[in-house]
């Protein structure tokens, strides 16, 4: 359910920008030519948009509204329609002590876990992605091959790669421990997925391994479109390459990087599969999606689980809006 | 290209649709150890006998995940699965989705079975599942290593700790640096609830999570004592990785010769004694240790039953399959081939069964007096109770909380879950 909602947020966001774009297109040119043409254009635009809006309403809007509704009932998975309206009791209620999601320390821990996971993994992916893209942008023999090979982690289904990693990280038989022991870096095998202080890093490592190619791909595309004259000018002026990177390359690839980051951040905020396969429901890596699923499916509490999904949706929407706002302002100021 | 692919795709769809129609029934079986092969073999025998075809689907190994899957399928009123293998703690929860087998089976169908399991599977007078195999936790140990160090089979958890320490130190000195004293099921899932309840119930007078009257009783001295000892095992006699082990991970370590003791279900017997096992003929099985001198051995009741979904299109046929799979012949075959505990008392006196699995005779009392989890009294809220319990135990084992502190928190958490009543 969370996934669907998330898809809804990003789609709605995309939809809104598209609409604004079309509106602008319809508005600005040749306004003085009278409103008839304009009106016809607007009508045509809506006509073309209609199928998509209908589909969106059916696959994203309806489930979202339904989840909102369920979050204010006490429905259970075995009797979905039997739920009674209970207002906001799933969120917070006082009954000789505070109850509800907002009063559940586990929920707040999963919010914190999710934010921590997102911040660390996406930062690492952005940095590593740019480095990988710069390397692949250089001319060397076998470049095409490496570029294709780089995409393999991104191409493997997450459940499969998470399971592979689970074996590699196994405390007794895992190859990672074997190698670290062989190199003398550790003197006893680490239990990557069981040790609460390591398990978050284990899932971050796997996520970074998987998603770095995605960031690298988008950045590489941007790198290939860069105008060569800036670089020639810099070369003539004898500017240090590091300075060139921060002053020329980075600002020019920033739009692509920001897009890559927002995609990754949205994915990371609703992360489920990689963590569920590696550490199941363990508290130290529980994310908002895992919390919502546990309530919805394991505890059969559709009302409470929907409330968690709704909060998850709101948190992601808020972060997205703030990010887009800041991103746009910075870009606006830069140009 | 597309045009050429289309007919091929169409053929594929038709072919798979044809296949789906060919199977009259679908049964979901567990896949822990040799479970799936045994299930397939049993189903194949019924197919040959009845002329109907059955599709066997495997389900996740973790009982917690399996329950979620069933609840999703049943919640959607799907007719995809006709016969479900359900845990002994689930009948109350799943009863609304299951048929009353009394309506499809002869009246004396349950007379030869353990009455306690039949009662467990009867919800409001409806027989919702037939007992397939029962389970109780047992202690596996390495005979050869205990002999080598001149140690007795431990009767208490304290003795187990001592013996494990001695042997572990000795074996590590002898060059096996990956050797551990004790492995069990420590992942935050239903299996940890079972393990921890066995510790707690083994102390004098036996601790409980929720008593038969529905009172929350987890904040008891037995529990604090048991959890404190268990927490001391981690990184001492048990690898830290045990905190992410289920049954099969524990067996992996034990069967490859890297552990002295293992807590597991009887199914592991057949596998540790198999041709591929590194420790074949060096393994013994006894009742789990007691909690101190005055304690008693406590094994938690496990076991699986076969139920028929209410949304099945062929309930009569499905009930016949259930009757066949739970029949004495089939249970005997499963006991001999896979060391699955029969649910028929008579089979515990069968010579062929006892020859294959000697401890079915010596541990008969353990199996018949196993302690149930508090699923009957907590009803629909059992998954939450179990979840709160295993999460707390997991925190204590991880060293994030002291036992007493964790139990205080758990007591109020359970009160929150109970609300105005179970």
Structural features, described:
The complex is a heterodimer of chains A (335) and B (422). The longest helix of chain A is centred in the first third of the chain and has 36 residues, at 35-70. Chain A contains 13 helices and two strands, in the order ααββααααααααααα. Residues 1-16 of chain A have low confidence and may be disordered. Chain A is mainly α and 335 residues long. Chain A has helices at 2-27, 35-70, 105-137, 143-150, 152-155, 158-168, 175-183, 196-224, 228-236, 241-269, 273-279, 288-298, 302-334, and strands at residues 93-94, 98-99. Chain B folds into two domains: 20-136 and 302-362, D-Maltodextrin-Binding Protein, domain 2 (3-Layer(aba) Sandwich), CATH 3.40.190.10; 138-300 and 372-418, Periplasmic binding protein-like II (D-Maltodextrin-Binding Protein, domain 2), CATH 3.40.190.10. Chain B is built from 19 helices and eleven strands. In chain B, the strands form three sheets. Chain B has a five-stranded mixed beta sheet with strand order 2-1-3-11-6. In chain B, helix 9 crosses helix 18 (382-398). The N and C termini of chain B lie far apart (62 Å). Classes of the chains: A mainly alpha (335), B alpha/beta (422). The A-B interface holds A 76-78, 80, 97, 99, 170-173, 189, 191, 193-196, 279-284, 294, 297-300 and B 62, 64, 67-68, 71-72, 74-75, 96-97, 178, 186-189, 239-245, 252-253, 258, 380, 383-384, 387, 391, 394-395, 398, 400, 416.
Q: Give the end-to-end Cα distance of chain B, rounded to a whole number of Å.
A: 62 Å
CATH topology of the largest domain in chain A: MetI-like fold
Look at the helices and sheets of chain B and give the structural class.
alpha/beta
Q: Helix segment count of chain A?
A: 13
Going across the major beta sheet of chain A, what is the strand order?
1-2
**In this structure, how is the largest beta sheet of chain A organized?**
2 strands, antiparallel
Compute the number of structural domains of chain B.
2
User: What would you say the CATH architecture of the largest domain in chain A is?
Assistant: Orthogonal Bundle
CATH superfamily of the largest domain in chain A: MetI-like
What would the principal axes of the Cα set say about the shape of chain B?
A: globular
- CATH class of the largest domain in chain B equals Alpha Beta
Tell me, what's the shape of chain A? flat
Mean pLDDT of chain B: 90
Termini gap of chain A = 40 Å
Question: Strand count, sense and closure of the main sheet of chain B?
Answer: 5 strands, mixed
Figure out the total of helices of chain B: 19
CATH-derived architecture of the largest domain in chain B? 3-Layer(aba) Sandwich
Radius of gyration of chain A: 24 Å
């Amino acid at each position: 359910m969370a996934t669907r909602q998330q898809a809804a947020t990003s789609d709605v966001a995309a939809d809104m920008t598209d609409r604004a774009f079309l509106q602008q297109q319809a508005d600005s040119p040749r306004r003085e030519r009278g409103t008839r043409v304009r009106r016809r254009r607007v009508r045509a635009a809506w006509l073309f948009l209609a199928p998509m809006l209908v589909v969106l309403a059916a696959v994203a809007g309806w489930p979202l509204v339904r989840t909102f509704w369920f979050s204010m009932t006490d429905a259970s998975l075995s009797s979905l329609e039997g739920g009674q309206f209970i207002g906001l009791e799933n969120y917070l209620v006082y009954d000789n002590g505070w109850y509800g999601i907002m009063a559940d320390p586990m929920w707040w821990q999963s919010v914190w876990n999710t934010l921590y996971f997102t911040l660390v993994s996406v930062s690492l992916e952005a940095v590593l992605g740019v480095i990988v893209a710069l390397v692949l942008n250089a001319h060397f023999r076998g470049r095409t091959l490496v570029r294709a090979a780089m995409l393999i982690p991104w191409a493997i289904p997450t459940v499969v790669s998470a399971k592979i990693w689970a074996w590699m990280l196994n405390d007794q038989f895992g190859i990672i421990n074997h190698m670290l022991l062989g190199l003398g870096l550790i003197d006893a095998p680490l239990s990557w997925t069981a040790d609460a202080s390591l398990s978050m890093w284990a899932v971050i490592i796997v996520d970074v391994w998987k998603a770095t190619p995605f960031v690298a791909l988008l950045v590489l595309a941007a790198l290939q479109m860069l105008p060569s004259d800036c670089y020639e000018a810099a070369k003539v002026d004898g500017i240090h390459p590091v300075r060139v990177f921060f002053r020329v390359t980075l600002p020019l690839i920033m739009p692509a990087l920001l897009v890559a980051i927002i995609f990754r951040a949205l994915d990371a905020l609703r992360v489920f599969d990689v963590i569920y396969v590696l550490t199941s429901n363990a508290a130290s890596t529980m994310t908002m999606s895992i919390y919502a699923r546990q309530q919805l499916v394991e505890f059969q509490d559709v009302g409470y689980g929907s409330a968690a999904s709704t909060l998850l949706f709101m948190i992601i929407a808020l972060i997205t809006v703030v990010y887009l706002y800041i991103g746009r302002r910075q870009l606006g100021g830069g140009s | 290209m597309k045009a050429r692919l289309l007919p091929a795709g169409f053929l594929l769809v038709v072919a798979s649709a044809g296949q789906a129609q060919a199977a009259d029934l679908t049964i979901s079986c567990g896949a822990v150890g040799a479970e799936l092969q045994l299930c397939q073999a049993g189903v194949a025998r019924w197919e040959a006998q009845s002329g109907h075809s059955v599709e066997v689907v495997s389900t996740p190994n973790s009982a917690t995940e399996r329950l979620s899957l069933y609840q999703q399928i049943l919640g959607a009123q799907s007719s995809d699965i006709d016969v479900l293998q359900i845990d002994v703690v689930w009948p109350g929860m799943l009863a609304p989705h299951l048929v009353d087998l009394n309506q499809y089976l002869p009246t004396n169908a349950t007379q030869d079975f353990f009455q306690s399991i039949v009662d467990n599977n009867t919800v409001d007078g409806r027989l919702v599942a037939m007992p397939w195999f029962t389970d109780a936790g047992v202690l596996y140990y390495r005979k050869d290593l205990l002999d080598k160090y001149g140690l007795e089979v431990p009767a208490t958890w304290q003795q187990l700790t001592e013996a494990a320490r001695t042997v572990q130190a000795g074996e590590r000195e002898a060059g096996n640096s990956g050797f551990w004293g004790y492995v069990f099921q420590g992942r935050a899932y239903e299996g940890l609830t079972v393990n921890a309840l066995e510790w707690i119930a083994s102390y004098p007078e036996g601790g409980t999570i929720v008593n038969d009257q529905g009172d929350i009783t987890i904040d008891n001295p037995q529990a604090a004592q048991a959890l404190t000892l268990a927490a001391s095992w981690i990184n001492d006699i048990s690898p830290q990785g045990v905190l992410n082990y289920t049954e099969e991970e524990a067996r992996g370590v034990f069967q490859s010769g890297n552990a002295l003791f293992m807590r597991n279900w009887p199914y592991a017997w057949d596998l540790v004694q198999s041709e591929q096992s590194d420790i074949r003929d060096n393994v013994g099985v006894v009742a789990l240790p007691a909690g101190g001198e005055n304690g008693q051995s406590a094994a938690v009741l496990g076991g699986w039953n076969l139920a028929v979904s209410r949304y099945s299109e062929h309930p009569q046929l499905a009930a016949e399959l259930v009757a066949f799979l739970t029949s004495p012949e089939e249970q005997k075959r499963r006991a001999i081939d896979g060391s699955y505990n029969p649910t028929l008392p008579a089979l515990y006196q069968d010579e062929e069964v006892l020859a294959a699995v000697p401890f079915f005779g010596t541990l008969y009392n353990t199996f018949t007096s196993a302690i149930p989890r508090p699923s009957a009294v907590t009803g629909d809220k059992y998954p939450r109770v179990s979840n709160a319990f295993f999460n707390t135990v997991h925190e204590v084992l991880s060293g994030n909380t002291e036992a007493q502190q964790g139990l205080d928190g758990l007591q109020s958490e359970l009160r929150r879950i109970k609300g105005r009543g179970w």
